[in-house]
Write a structure and sequence with these properties.
Strand order of the largest sheet: 4-10-9-8-7-5-6
Number of strands: 17
CATH architecture of the largest domain: 3-Layer(aba) Sandwich
Shape: globular
CATH superfamily of the largest domain: Type I PLP-dependent aspartate aminotransferase-like (Major domain)
Strand content: 5-15%
Number of helices: 20
Distance between the termini: 22 Å
């Protein structure tokens, strides 16, 4: 569903006045109940809604879930323990947990064209951990057990178990470099995945800033990984997953695609054929929020039947007990995404990203890769004389919420960065189109042009502090407010 119908522009005072609707009644009642126990929590919930209604949300990993998705999380499914899978639980009394988990999985399979869906992961990192251990169990542990004539790890001698443990921790992985747009959970040392695998990164071409598949293939042939990871958190282009599968097959690697960022574009049929990860990878992971517009959570998909039994051991292998209330919300979100209007939404997300990139480029901004094929835009802010941290903070002061992000070969490192990442899923959800994206681009470039770095106490140029005049800040906040007033968030809720 769309939170605000773009065909009905509205200046309705929905965000400031009382609205009568089933959703408003439900939330008012819920906040009254919460407030009776801890009024500060109710106040902070209202405050967060106020913030989200007053800021242009361009965080590429955020969106607005529907009232139905949000309400599905606040119920007595929260009270259930349900380790295991439907029909095979370690706890009794899971009849309706089984039903809601099966419903969520069935919706996910139909939505993505997957043979199997595991909907228990609590987050994207959890989904990745389930996938990593499923691949290790399938490729390393299971053959070892067969070779030693036992069925379970508990049947191994202490010496054999130590040998298997060393083997499990001595496997190789390749994935996209962080500054090229990859993600920390794809084998980097600060994350558990980097402590689990011996990892090497593939980057992008220095000139085009795009993936060079020949170089990916060369790395794979040289390094011979067990696992090849594709997917990204800050790469503004499509990836040819059919080509990535060919490379993986050539070197005997299992191809895993993390589609957390662009799952909505897959569900909405913007990415099809060679660009559809589910049709081409051995195993696919994702979050269920971001462009998919569901609750915060994760999912693992596969069409490889031999991986299913290992994926389904995610709990208790690496997961705690399933969050049945969140699985209920996933079922609602997947049902929404199966409706025809979601394909229209996904197409508009990509159209809006292209318009935003074009608008910034026409105003002198440098867009990494020169454009975008997906939901995100990566802006090099060095031409404005800024670091990513300065740009992020200045834009927030003007009512525009983005996040700083590394760019290829970033000279400012991962903390200060040289770029900011923009995404269009949230503003598309409230009904904004390409015209509004051009106005947003004008606001962004106006703020960045007017922002000046200041100096540190030692007189050196600061990478964090900046100066932005009150007139520029307030003028652009007013422009942002006008856009938001014409495209209100949750108009059926009104003031709560």
């Amino acid at each position: 569903m769309v939170i605000q119908d773009p065909a009905v522009p509205s200046s309705d005072p929905a965000a400031t006045g009382r609205v009568e609707s089933p959703e408003a009644d439900a939330y008012r009642a819920a906040l009254d109940v919460i407030g009776a126990v801890e009024p500060d929590v109710a106040s902070h919930i209202r405050g967060e809604l106020g913030n989200q209604r007053s800021q242009l949300k361009l965080i590429a990993s955020e969106n607005y879930a529907s009232p139905a998705v949000l309400l599905a999380m606040g119920n007595w499914f929260s009270d259930k323990y349900a380790e295991g899978v439907p029909g095979h639980r370690f706890y009794a009394g899971c009849e309706f947990v089984d039903k809601v988990e099966t419903l969520a999985a069935d919706h996910a399979k139909a939505l993505f064209g997957a043979g199997h869906a595991y909907v228990q992961p609590h987050s994207g990192i959890d989904a990745n951990l389930v996938a990593f251990w499923a691949m290790l169990a399938h490729r390393v542990e299971a053959p070892y057990l067969v070779d030693h004539g036992v069925r379970h790890v508990n049947d191994l001698s202490d010496a054999d178990w130590e040998e298997l443990r060393r083997s499990l921790g001595n496997q190789r992985m390749i994935g996209m470099a962080l500054d090229a747009g990859g993600h920390l959970t794809h084998g980097f040392r600060p994350n558990i995945s980097g402590k689990l695998f011996d990892q090497r990164s593939y980057g992008v071409d220095r000139e085009t800033e795009m993936l060079d598949y020949d170089r990916v293939a060369a790395l794979a042939r040289e390094f011979k990984p067990l696992v090849m990871v594709a997917g990204y958190s800050a790469y503004p282009r499509k990836v040819n997953f059919a080509t990535m599968r060919e490379i993986a097959d050539e070197v005997g690697a299992t191809l895993m695609v993390d589609m957390a960022h662009f799952a909505g574009l897959v569900a909405g049929k913007v990415f099809t054929g060679d660009f559809d990860p589910v049709a081409n990878a051995h195993i696919v992971t994702s979050t269920t929020h971001k462009s998919l517009r569901g609750p915060r959570g994760g999912i693992v998909l596969t069409n490889e039947t031999e991986l299913v039994e290992f994926i389904d051991k995610g709990c208790p292998m690496v997961l705690g007990g399933p969050l049945s209330n969140v699985m209920a919300a996933k079922a609602v979100a997947f049902a929404e995404a199966r409706k025809p209007e979601f394909q229209d939404y996904a197409a508009r997300v990509a159209e809006n990203a292209a318009a935003l990139a074009d608008g910034i480029g026409r105003r002198g901004g440098r867009i990494v890769t020169g454009g975008t094929d997906n939901h995100l835009v990566l802006v090099d802010v060095r031409p404005f004389g800024l670091t990513g941290r300065q740009a992020e903070s200045a834009l927030e002061a003007a009512g525009v919420i983005v996040n700083r992000n590394s760019i290829p070969d970033d000279e400012n490192g991962a903390w200060y960065t040289s770029g900011v990442r923009l995404g269009t899923p949230a503003l598309t959800t409230v009904g904004m189109g390409t015209g509004e994206m051009d106005e947003v681009a004008d606001i962004i470039c106006g703020v960045l042009t007017a922002t000046e770095p200041t100096t540190t106490s030692s007189g050196d140029p600061s990478k964090a502090k900046f100066h932005l005049t009150d007139d520029v800040r307030d003028g652009n906040r007013a422009r942002a407010a006008e856009l938001l007033a014409a495209n209100p968030l949750y108009p059926t809720l009104g003031a709560l």
